[in-house]
């Protein structure tokens, strides 16, 4: 891992780290205020594909988090950027609530497949339509490949198993744009003036949050909330820089040891 420099930026995951659906992680709002009172730059990074950035922001505001839209970098944004770069017409396999983030993108007569978490659309007919497009040479763009995520009623399948099914059936590989891709973390830092070696990532997903960030040159703090399961910290190499109980504990560590 690269030589450490003074901490300048903290990237924070949202779902599972600051909140679970419409409930905040206890103490998270106050911890965020304490972090903001320091000199570090705070940005929020999320793989959520269940809602648009605007809907997500409204949810966070209702939970009394002091967060602005320009501080959030989502995998939906990364997917839209790639679609525009490739100049393709995507079949959008995403939740209807995420569609506003693709406003203005041409989707008729699709020649690409973009897939996120879309429980209402993950049925045979729709997946078979995507399968046929891919067989005809359409690129497969995965917003992310998370295995599962945390809901109020327990763990639930993420888009990863469905992306993998399409890859398997068509003998192709998806281009993944969200966490844990290195480019996602670097894009999140773009315009901040901060380098990965000056950054800490806090999240509840050992692979996508912590492993991805550490592969990009950051330090990763794994929190035991959200989708965390016992011994997750042993699933990645190198191990997390730190594993702690929750976001407030992560902030305590940063304030006491990294500033």
Q: What is the approximate shape?
A: globular
Alpha carbon gyration radius: 18 Å
| Name of the CATH superfamily of the largest domain | HAD superfamily/HAD-like
Mean pLDDT: 94
Number of helices: 8
Question: What is the beta-strand fraction?
Answer: 15-25%
Give me the CATH architecture of the largest domain, please. Answer: 3-Layer(aba) Sandwich
Alpha-beta classification: alpha/beta
Q: Report the top-level CATH class of the largest domain.
A: Alpha Beta
Sheet with most strands: 6 strands, parallel
In short:
With 259 residues, the chain is an alpha/beta fold. The protein has helices at 28-36, 53-62, 75-86, 124-135, 160-170, 182-189, 206-215, 247-258; strands at residues 9-13, 19-20, 23-24, 41-46, 72-74, 90-93, 112-115, 140-142, 148-151, 154-157, 175-176, 199-203, 219-223, 242-244.
């Amino acid at each position: 891992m690269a030589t450490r420099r003074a901490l300048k930026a903290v990237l924070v995951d949202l779902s599972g780290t600051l909140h679970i659906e419409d409930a905040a992680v206890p103490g998270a709002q106050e911890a965020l205020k304490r972090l903001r009172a320091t000199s570090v730059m705070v940005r929020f990074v999320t793989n959520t594909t269940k809602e648009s950035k605007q809907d997500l922001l409204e949810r966070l505001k209702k939970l009394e988090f002091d967060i602005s839209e320009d501080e959030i970098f989502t995998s939906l944004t990364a997917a839209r950027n790639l679609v525009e770069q490739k100049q393709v017409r995507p079949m959008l396999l995403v939740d209807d609530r995420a569609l506003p983030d693709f406003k203005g993108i041409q989707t008729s007569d699709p020649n690409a497949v973009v897939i996120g978490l879309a429980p209402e659309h993950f049925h045979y007919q729709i997946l078979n339509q995507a399968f046929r497009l891919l067989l005809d040479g359409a690129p497969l763009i995965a917003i992310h490949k998370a295995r599962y995520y945390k809901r109020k009623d327990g763990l639930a399948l993420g888009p990863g198993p469905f992306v993998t099914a399409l890859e398997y059936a068509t003998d192709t590989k998806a281009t993944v744009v969200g966490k844990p891709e290195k480019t996602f973390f670097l894009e999140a830092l773009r315009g901040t003036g901060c380098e990965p070696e000056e950054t800490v990532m806090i999240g509840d997903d050992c692979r996508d949050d912590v492993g991805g960030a550490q592969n990009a040159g950051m330090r990763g703090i794994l929190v035991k909330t959200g989708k965390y399961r016992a011994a997750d910290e042993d699933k990645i190499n190198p191990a997390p820089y730190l594993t702690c109980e929750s976001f407030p504990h992560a902030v305590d560590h940063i304030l006491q040891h990294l500033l």
